[in-house]
Amino acid sequence: MVRILAVDLGGSHAACALVEDKAIIARDGITFGDGVTLEAILPEIAEVLRRLNNQHMAQGVGFGFCGLVDARNSRVSSTNGKFVDAVDLDLRAWGQNQIGLPLRLENDARLALLGECAAGAAQGETDVVMFTLGTGIGGVAMMDGRPLQGKHGQAGVLGGHVPVNFNGRKCTCGAIGCAESEASGWSLPLVCAEWPGFATSALQGREINFENVFACAAAGDRVAVEVQQHCLQVWGATAIAAVHAFDPDVLLYGGGVMKSANVVIPFIQDYVNRYAWTPWGKPTVRAAQLGNDAALLGVVPLFQQESGFVR
Ligand SMILES: [Zn+2]
Question: Does residue 167 have a pLDDT over 80?
């Protein structure tokens, strides 16, 4: 039996849990405002973790971070505007000093993929690409049962920043025409505002989010139908890029957009069936199962994949 404390740090919330094999046996969390530093909230996170570990059963701390992570050295290598101080923090030393346990740091999307492979929609799979379609687009790749790392620790984790349009919109990452800047929660209002006919669309005056775009599309609004089609094609093109780059058996999709999984999953499966060059067969497109728990449940395999560390 493996028991690991988990932290999944997002932009406004840190979810914490005690995970035993494939189950969360206790959970807690903290919320915080914009612009807070990681150093400022670490004492509170430590307190929550100590409380979750009140019977001292945990064997380690798995920490998921929303940025580029050098997992081999448990260091944050770059952030996209949030927790910019994290690059200078020694979280491994913090885990040892404050919790008394070895700590492993990983990118939150890689952790979510580990979780889905251990306890969710990709159990038993070894070659998987996972996309999270939400405010941004997370994309992460596993080959031969291990999340890709690469020389600088950033291989496979920038799936949302694969350019799909070199004449496109400037992305928050600095590149142009990324999948994320063409079809994600943050770029959707920009896409809609520029769409021909938007002024007379049923979307006019509504909050621009995927739920409303998909609802208006289902009701036959022309602009919503076209924007929905545009987004589906961006995600389809990104899926082909991932299939051609990483050779997966399974493409897994999570995030808020999966409220419309009944539209998104069949579209991408059809797109992959048409356009992926895969003579062995076709990758299966599936919805993820674990939602926000995926990254928490990824901490057990995170420790297990290091041979001899925890068995
Ligand atoms: Zn980008």
Answer: yes
What is the whole-number distance in angstroms between the Cα of residue 11 and the centre of ligand 1?
18
CATH C-level class of 3-114+293-304:
alpha beta
Query: Could you tell me the pTM of the whole model?
Result: 0.91
Asked if CATH classification 3.30.420.40 holds for the domain at 125-288, the reply, yes or no, is yes
Going from the Cα of 91 to the center of ligand 1, the distance in angstroms, rounded, reads 27
Distance of CA 97 from the midpoint of ligand 1 (Å): 36
Going by pLDDT thresholds of 50, 70 and 90, the confidence category of residue 122 is very high
Q: What average pLDDT does the chain have?
A: 94
What span, in angstroms and rounded, lies between the C-alpha atoms of 218 and 100?
Answer: 54
CA of 237 to the centre of ligand 1 (A): 15
Cα 34 to middle of ligand 1, angstroms: 21
Which residues, at least 6 apart from 19, have a Cβ–Cβ distance to it below 8 Å? 3, 4, 5, 6, 25, 62, 296, 297, 299, 300
The CATH 3.30.420.40 domain(s) of the chain lie at 3-114+293-304, 125-288
